[in-house]
């Protein structure tokens, strides 16, 4: 594939409940939008099709990405799939079932910390833990319910517990039902993350932990383990994968 000369590139990350869109000018992130319950119509109304964008990449964990690429018919598109060439080596045993956002996040972490063993934690609707070694070989990880899923589970599978949303807390012992739920969910997931990190450090003592995702803000200051937190890791990884394929 011949390199695209125009500087503007579009990145679309379609998650379970929201979409993030980014426009890059060369390597600089110039525009970022976050959309709840995304639809092609909502994205079209943003007017991004009016920008001189030459190429784009789309990653979707749910919807058919073709519904969105038709909004920009003149772009050179990369749809991230299990067969898409990557700047890392994917050793996952079932690549066709792997969330593409996980590959993007690990690709970005490998770019930021080359030559290091990596644990990437993405705190979103689900929490994913992904491991890649210092050679840039991705093996997989684990998937756990995120904050919103845990709050909904307590409300759905009990008769009296209210449905709450995450907020920053500083206490361990909840002195009301509301505080007890917040403490149990948020402190519980915090303890899970630290526990997973500790298990990886037992085998790879110098592992670099990278935290990202919409709920990362609730944990970046409370985890006892040292981490590197960044909000746009998946977008960065998608841009790297786009460039990697355009240069082929």
Structure in words:
The protein has 248 residues and is α/β, with parallel strands linked by helices. The protein folds into 2 domains: 8-113 and 233-246, Nucleotidyltransferase, domain 5 (2-Layer Sandwich); 141-229, Nucleotidyltransferase, domain 5 (2-Layer Sandwich). The chain is built from 6 helices and 11 strands. The chain has helices at 40-44, 66-69, 100-112, 147-156, 177-203, 233-246; strands at 8-14, 18-25, 28-36, 53-60, 76-79, 89-90, 118-123, 126-132, 137-145, 208-212, 228-229. The strands form 2 sheets. It has a 6-stranded mixed beta sheet with strand order 6-9-8-7-10-11, with helices on both faces. The chain has a 5-stranded mixed beta sheet with strand order 3-2-1-4-5. α3 packs across α6 (233-246). The model has no long low-confidence stretch (mean pLDDT 93).
Short description:
The chain has 248 residues and is of the alpha/beta class.
User: Strand order within the widest sheet?
Assistant: 6-9-8-7-10-11
**Helical coverage, percent range:** 25-40%
Radius of gyration: 19 Å
| CATH fold-level topology of the largest domain | Nucleotidyltransferase, domain 5
What is the number of E strands? 11
Return the CATH class of the largest domain: Alpha Beta
Taken as a percent bin, the fraction of beta residues is 25-35%
Which segments are poorly predicted (pLDDT under 50) over 5 or more consecutive residues? none
> How would you describe the oligomerization state of the chains in this entry?
single chain
Tally of individual domains? 2
How many strands, what sense, and barrel or not for the largest sheet?
Answer: 6 strands, mixed
Coarse morphology: globular
Question: What distance separates the N and C termini?
Answer: 5 Å
H/E series = EEEHEHEEHEEEHHEEH
Identify the CATH architecture of the largest domain. Answer: 2-Layer Sandwich
- Distinct helical segment count: 6
């Amino acid at each position: 594939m011949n390199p695209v000369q125009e500087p503007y590139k579009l990145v679309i990350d379609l998650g379970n409940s929201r979409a993030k869109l980014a426009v890059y000018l060369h390597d600089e992130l110039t525009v970022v939008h976050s959309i709840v319950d995304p639809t092609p119509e909502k994205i079209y109304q943003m007017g991004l099709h009016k920008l001189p964008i030459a190429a784009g990449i789309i990653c979707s964990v749910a919807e058919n990405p073709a519904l969105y690429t038709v909004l920009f018919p003149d772009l050179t598109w990369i749809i991230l799939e299990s067969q898409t060439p990557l700047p890392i080596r994917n050793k996952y045993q079932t690549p066709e079932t792997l969330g593409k956002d996980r590959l993007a996040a690990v690709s970005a972490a490998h770019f930021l910390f080359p030559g290091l063993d990596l644990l990437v934690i993405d705190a979103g609707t689900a929490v994913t833990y992904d491991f890649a070694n210092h050679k840039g070989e991705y093996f997989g990880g684990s998937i756990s319910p995120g904050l919103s899923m845990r709050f909904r589970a307590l409300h759905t599978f009990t008769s009296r517990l209210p449905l709450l949303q995450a907020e920053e807390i500083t206490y361990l012992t909840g002195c009301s039902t509301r505080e007890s739920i917040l403490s149990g969910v948020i402190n519980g997931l915090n303890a899970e993350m630290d526990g997973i990190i500790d298990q990886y450090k037992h085998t790879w003592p110098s592992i670099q932990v990278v935290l990202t995702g919409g709920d990362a803000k609730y944990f970046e200051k409370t985890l006892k383990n040292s981490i590197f937190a960044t909000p746009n890791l998946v977008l960065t990884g998608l841009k790297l994968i786009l460039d990697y394929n355009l240069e082929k």
